Amino acid sequence: MKLFNLSVFIVFFTFFSNAQIQSESDYVQILGIVQDAGYPHIGCEKDCCELVKPGDYFVSCIGLVDKANNKRYLFDATPDMHNQLNLLEKFPNGNLIDGIFLTHAHIGHYTGLMYLGREGLGGNKIKVYALKRMAAFLRKNGPWNQLIKLKNIDIQTISNKNFTKLSKNILVIPIKVPHRDEYSETVGYKIIGKTKKILFIPDIDKWNEWEKILLKR
After folding, report:
1. Residue 157: helix, strand or coil by DSSP?
2. Phi, psi of 149 (to 5 degrees)
3. How far is CA 88 from the centre of its chain?
4. Which of 9, 17, 34, 92 is spaced 20 to 30 A from 41 at the CA atom?
5. Rounded to two decimals, what is the model's pTM?
């Protein structure tokens, strides 16, 4: 799998909203780069907001495309999900979406699940991967628990640092990070391909509060 390495990914994630690095079989695509409430930000009257056209930028999200198996995955379900899915490569005999990995329970990261219900896609057991508290939040609260009841989504409870195997060449590992955890844990995801790997962390409070050391001086 040809993916961004960590250092390159941080640069591209900061400056490009639809960046893609592709191989013949698999790739990761950046589908959004902005904070939960979007850009221009609600209530912002500064030049940095006034000069931006609505729809130019989407909330932070990446897509993983497994071309060998005609699979498409999202990392976070943002309020812009209906537009972000249109940016991903489509397969003639594939599903619109094969799975969603959630990072945490802040509005820019899970509320896109609303599009999978009867008012929208009317999904059929779309796999939603989440850690224990995030999964419990969805099961206990509406309208998300209705998605479960109607079998629009199928919650897959995963655990910190344990991998999910999406194919023979693709592994996904959740890693907890420090953040405001009012309703759920907060995780990033390490995506491991055949030859490359990438770390996706859309939210973290402070790097020096994290137990991981990313770069050695």
Report:
1. strand
2. -60, -40
3. 13
4. 9
5. 0.86
With beta carbons less than 8 A apart as the criterion, state whether 82 and 115 touch: yes
DSSP labels, 135-147: HHHHHHSTTHHHH
Alpha helices (H) along 16-129: 47-50, 81-84, 107-110
Other CB atoms within 10 A of residue 194 CB:
15
What residues have CB less than 8 Å from 74, skipping those under 6 apart?
31, 61, 62, 63, 64, 81, 84, 85, 97, 99, 100, 101
71: Cα within 13 Å, side-chain hemisphere: 16
Model pLDDT for residues 25-73, shown as the tens digit of each residue: 789 999 999 989 888 888 888 888 888 877 789 999 999 999 999 999 9
Q: Tokens in use for 90?
A: 């489509």
Helices (H), the chain: 6-15, 47-50, 81-84, 107-110, 132-140, 144-149
Q: How confident is the model at residue 24 (pLDDT cuts 50, 70, 90)?
A: low
- Concatenating the DSSP letter of every residue in 85-102 gives GGGSPP-TTS-S-SEEE-
- Cα Dmax for the chain: 52
What's the number of CA atoms in the CB half-sphere (13 Å) around residue 148? 15
Catalogue all structural domains in the chain, each as residue range(s) with its CATH number: 6-209 (3.60.15.10)
